């Protein structure tokens, strides 16, 4: 980890110093031209344009005819300009080459570092497509404390995003090689929010082939696309337009309920969350009444998901099993304590 941090610091210093070095070399070249022009005007009494012409053909060593006869002092000035010009031009060329090489090397090492970091990930989430929907998905996942890898075909966008420290993969999300670069075989979930439904279908199909246990959520925009994406292997399909329209209607018809759920999802105190029960959980095999969730942790069990079935407001004699997902309502501290004890 220390090496990565050292590299990041070195890369930042390079970005800052490169313009200064190029500016210094440019100033030297400009000064040489102005000095040569002024020298010819002072030594030979040449007009400014003839002096500029002589300076240019001398420094660039093109060998054209002299604009005016040169005295011994003029020839001495010409020799000085030749030697100094060659040295300064070599210096400028080396600075430009150095800047290009350092930039390429910095980007290459950055890609290697991000690739190694992604290879070490496990249980992370992959977001395919970093448009308006993808950006919102990434923000929510990071807010929830999840590890996220972003895939997008726009290389410049991925370079900018990588500078923020977010793991990225620049490439086509429908391709197997791109998903493997995002370590899809060890990921927990994938969100495909590409702008084209056909691309979402191919992405879901490829991801499901590479990781059969992956939980996949995909975006659909056209009518009938939801069925095709589900057939490709998605666990859930969301149409942002339908969802947005329904929310707008609910804000008109049921504003209190919408406000309650908004506060429950992102509220600083009380919130809705979910906890999966493992085989060694202390509440497995007990009923909700025996588990004593409300008295022990101060939580309300709103629903229980068992497989594909959801039991809303489960009764007190509902017996919990390993793999059950409890939807609970309470404070962050209470939910965290319950998850550590029973999740």
Features:
343 residues, alpha/beta, Helix Hairpins, Alpha-Beta Plaits, 3 domains, 6-stranded parallel β-sheet, 4-stranded antiparallel β-sheet, 13 helices, disordered N terminus
How is the secondary structure organized here?
Layout: H1 2-43, H2 48-59, H3 72-119, E1 125-128, H4 132-143, E2 148-152, H5 155-162, E3 168-170, H6 176-181, E4 189-192, H7 197-210, E5 215-219, H8 225-232, E6 236-238, H9 240-253, H10 255-266, E7 270-276, H11 288-291, H12 293-297, E8 300-306, E9 309-312, E10 325-331, H13 332-342
Parallel strand pairs: 1-2, 1-4, 2-3, 4-5, 5-6
Antiparallel strand pairs: 7-10, 8-9, 8-10
Coarse morphology = elongated
Rg calculated over all Cα atoms:
33 Å
Would you identify the CATH architecture of the largest domain?
3-Layer(aba) Sandwich
Main beta-sheet strand count, sense and barrel state:
6 strands, parallel
Q: Regarding quaternary structure, how should these chains be classified? A: single chain
Terminal CA distance: 30 Å
**Order of the strands making up the biggest sheet:** 3-2-1-4-5-6
Low-pLDDT sequence parts: 1-16
Secondary-structure content class:
alpha/beta
The portion of residues forming beta strands comes to: 5-15%
């Amino acid at each position: 980890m220390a090496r990565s941090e050292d590299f990041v610091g070195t890369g930042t210093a390079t970005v800052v110093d490169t313009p200064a070095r190029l500016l210094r070399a440019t100033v030297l070249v400009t000064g040489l031209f102005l000095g040569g022009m002024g020298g010819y005007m002072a030594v030979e009494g040449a007009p400014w344009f003839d002096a500029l012409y002589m300076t240019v053909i001398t420094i660039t060593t093109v060998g054209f005819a002299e604009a005016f006869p040169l005295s011994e002092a003029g020839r001495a000035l010409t020799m000085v300009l030749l030697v100094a010009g060659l040295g300064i031009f070599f210096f400028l060329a080396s600075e430009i080459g150095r800047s290009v090489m350092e930039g390429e090397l910095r980007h290459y090492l950055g890609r290697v570092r991000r690739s190694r970091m992604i290879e070490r990930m496990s249980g992370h989430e992959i977001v395919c497509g970093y448009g308006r929907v993808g950006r919102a998905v990434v923000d929510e996942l990071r807010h929830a404390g999840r590890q996220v890898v972003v895939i997008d075909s726009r290389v410049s966008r991925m370079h900018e995003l990588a500078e923020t420290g977010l793991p990225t993969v620049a490439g086509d999300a429908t391709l197997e090689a791109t998903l493997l670069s995002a370590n899809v075989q060890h990921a927990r979930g994938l969100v495909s929010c590409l702008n084209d439904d056909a691309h979402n279908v191919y992405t879901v199909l490829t991801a499901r082939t590479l990781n059969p246990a992956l939980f996949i959520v995909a975006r659909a925009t056209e009518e009938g696309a939801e069925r095709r994406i589900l057939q490709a292997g998605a666990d859930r399909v969301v149409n942002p337009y339908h969802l947005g329209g329904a929310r707008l209607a609910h804000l008109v018809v049921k504003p209190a309920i919408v406000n309650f759920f908004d506060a429950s999802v992102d509220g600083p105190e009380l919130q809705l969350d979910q906890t999966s029960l493992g085989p060694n959980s202390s509440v497995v095999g007990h009923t909700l009444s025996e588990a004593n969730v409300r008295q022990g942790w101060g939580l309300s069990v709103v629903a229980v998901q068992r497989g594909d079935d959801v039991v809303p407001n489960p009764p007190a004699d509902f017996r919990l099993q390993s793999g059950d997902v409890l939807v609970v309502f309470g404070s962050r501290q209470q939910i965290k304590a319950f998850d550590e004890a029973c999740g």
